[in-house]
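In response to reviewer comment 3 from the previous cycle, which asked for concrete evidence that the modeling workflow produces usable outputs, we include below a single protein chain processed end to end. The sequence was submitted unchanged, and the resulting structure tokens are shown without manual editing.
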Amino acid sequence: MNAPPALIEQLRARGLEVEPSPGRLSERGAQWMRHSALLEHFTVEQADILGQAMVLVRARPGQVLVSEGEQSEWMLVLLAGTIDVTKKMPVPAEDGSLREIDTRLAVLPPGGVVGEMSMLDQAPRFATLTAIEAIEAGVITRAAIGRLIDEHPAVGAKLLVRVTEMIAQRLRNASNQLTRLMDERRLAAAGHARSPSRPESFRPD
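The workflow returned the following structure tokens.
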């Protein structure tokens, strides 16, 4: 499948090296496929068809692949290397104001997938992706998935089901983390309320 010129231009504008396709994903090895959350249930043939729908991207250490807040319609499958996932978070400054610092959310390992939610709903990117070491990644666009569904329905359907499952799992994890945080705050508040007040010092008349 031919890569959209606009996508190639966008990626190259960041200084990234772009090639039409990563080739056969099965050649990355059975172990790599087993460790990929996206491809663990794909056959070798299905993985290779998916690879043909991707664009291959290479980045040097320190290069930014995605910036927080920008809009783009693609997701990324990490083929080799590691990626730093960071987000600007407000923290109190010494003068009482708030300042933003880059906070690490995760380190994406080979086989990892990122960007699927923004690809589907076209919302601004939630975080920044920066290559920690030299990386290779497969990029697939929303439009490419549409063509994949037309030309290879079984592969396209399996891809969409797996992406949906991954999004649901991330939302479930976020919900569980929020629930734990609320429980911890409730327990802390209850413990504070039960704490006996300090008795007044005895002072003889």
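Strands lie at 17-19, 55-59, 64-66, 74-80, 83-92, 98-108, 113-114, 128-131, 135-141. We consider this sufficient to address the reviewer's concern, and the full set will be provided in the supplementary archive.
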